[in-house]
Design a protein that fits this description.
Layout (H helix, E strand, L loop, with lengths): L2 E5 L3 H12 L3 E6 L10 E5 L5 H8 L4 E4 L8 H19 L2 E6 L22 H18 L5 E5 L2 E3 L6 H10 L3 E4 L9 E3 H12 L8 E3 L8 H12 L5 E4 L3 H6 L4 H6 L15 H7 L6 H14 L11
Parallel strand pairs: 1-2, 1-4, 2-3, 4-5, 5-6, 6-10, 7-9, 8-11
Helix pairs in contact: 1-6, 2-3, 3-4, 5-7, 7-11
């Protein structure tokens, strides 16, 4: 039985804690308010993960330190640097593998499917923050000061998140019209939250995964329209009513809404094909993506009863 420390109790942190607990591991979840899933094997601790001394004390003896934190979008440039520094310092001091949940922002706009070899060419603030975090971690790894890895997913599928599909599907199931400034017919990779957890744990515990980033195995890319149609069919809901809003509307919304303002930087992800290749993780780590309809069935059930259910096959 190993100790795993998880920073953050959002959808991914919660799924990771549940997965590890179900496997018989000891889990310590660290958040500012001491939140996290209720499980006999999960210890919930209220602490500031940005305090390297406190986090080091909580991580001593741990096999891995899982970075599942996610500051508010508009606070990334101010909140991420000190938090990332504390996490890396803790990994250096304790020897725990630092396994970070990343994303695709660092690549910026691309033509064609993204792989782990796609250059980190983002010119946006959020993408540059993530690139700096990974560069610092990788430098520590190459210098022999720490062992690090990162798993990157596309937009999340999973109850409790604020991703585009999770803003769309509740309205679809309620028979309401969805109006968004996106191309509903552009192929897009969607990443199921329990698959992020499985990939994170696999990367943290397999030394072949250390020193590089991995894309979370995800189902084949489908347009948001198809995602909505399939979810509606599973729920017995009416055919989705989807209306594309002109791009300037997003800019106008950003004048009053910080979240909408931050979405301007990543708007390119939703007006063209946005496809992620995850072959490397499938082949090396042995993680297979959850079939899309299986994931949607769990999400539909969760939206109906308001509960964030762990995926039945999360222990794959």
């Amino acid at each position: 039985m190993s100790l795993h420390v998880i920073v953050g109790a959002g959808p991914v942190g919660t799924a990771t804690a549940r997965l590890l607990a179900e496997r018989g591991e000891r889990v310590r979840v660290v958040t500012r308010r001491g939140t996290g899933p209720e499980h006999p094997a999960v210890e919930r601790v209220a602490a500031d993960a940005g305090d390297a001394d406190r986090l080091t004390a909580l991580t001593e003896g741990a096999t891995a330190l899982h970075n599942c934190a996610n500051p508010a979008y508009h606070r990334w440039p101010t909140d991420w640097p000190p938090l990332a520094a504390a996490l890396l310092t803790t990994a250096e001091r304790t020897g725990a593998v630092l396994a970070t949940v990343g994303n695709l922002y660092g690549y910026g706009p691309v033509d064609g499917p993204m792989t782990e070899r796609t250059p980190p060419a983002s010119t946006g603030a959020k993408g540059q923050v993530r690139n700096r975090m990974w560069a610092d971690a990788l430098a520590a790894h190459r210098a022999g000061r720490a062992r690090v890895t990162e798993v990157r997913g596309s937009d999340y599928l999973g109850v409790g998140g604020q991703s585009l599909p999770m803003l769309t599907l509740p309205k679809v199931l309620a028979g309401k019209r969805v109006v968004l400034p996106v191309d509903f017919d552009a192929p897009h990779t969607w990443t199921y939250v329990p698959d992020v957890a499985r990939t994170l744990v696999a990367a943290a515990t397999d030394e072949r995964a250390w020193g590089r980033a991995w894309h979370v195995p995800s189902a084949d890319a489908v347009p948001l329209r198809e995602l909505a149609v399939r979810a509606a069919a599973l729920a017995g809901a009416p055919a989705p009513k989807l209306t594309r809003l002109p791009r300037p509307a997003l800019w106008l919304a950003g004048l009053a809404n910080p979240f909408a303002r931050e979405l301007r930087e990543t708007a390119y992800q939703f007006d063209r094909p946005f496809v992620m290749d995850s072959t490397a993780a499938r082949d090396t780590l042995g993680v297979a993506p959850t079939p899309l309809d299986e994931a949607l069935a769990v999400i539909v059930a969760g939206l109906r009863d308001g509960a964030d259910r762990p995926m039945p096959s999360a222990a794959r």
